[in-house]
Here is the input.
Amino acid sequence: MKVLFCDDDLEMLKQLENDFKVYFKNQIIELETKCLYQNFTDFQKYDICFLDIDLKNEDGIALAKKLKTYNSQLIIIFISQREDLVFQTFSVQPFQFIRKKHYQEDIKEVFNQLNYSLQQTTMSLKINHQKIYLNPLDIISVISLDHDVIVTTKKKTYTLKDSLKNFCHNNEKYFIVQIKKNLAISLYKVEKVKGNKIVYENQEYVIGRIYQKNFKNLCLLHKKQKKSGVKTINFENNIEKEISPSLLALHNAKRRGFASVYIHPTIIRK
Here is the structure.
């Protein structure tokens, strides 16, 4: 998982990065962080971005829009002294806001919310009685060998006791799909689909006949979710519902004292 921190206040930048690493040291195993203090030109794909709204020589909101062209699902958390700029950020659908004047209070709440969100959107693997979390986007392949499942990411290989069928079933919501008896892939990395053939990691694969129907259904669901841009959130009654990003941002703003209007969480999109 790649996390970017952007702030022209160097002391705040280092504190935020350190606090993040301390809080998530056991949750995020494959973590890369980068801090930008002056030259805000490192445009690449990140998973999470902490970004000052009011930078000295840059428009933080415009910067967020550029970063989202590299990853439309980028989690953006704005930080600022300027609470009056909060409503201008809704165009980039921020996850949350950190007020510098209330840093210690806000950082705990934001990290708790982010941790919960990551648990819903990252895969958990139990290895040697320890639970670790992986970003599904980092997964290259999942294969079965004897009675083990081997998960390969960009940096590491994880081995756990399970069957490939069971593993794929439990992680279907992360778009891990079986295409052969001993091979499963991540739909996030499929480059091309034509009939029962796919291009994956620059190689062509033929999808096994018994796996074609499920593969097609997951592809349609994946395409629909990417197109809609709708996020899910669990409210107090533990019922998971879909809510548009703009309403979610307003709901969070109200909870944090930024908004004078209240967006009830049951205003949802079917």
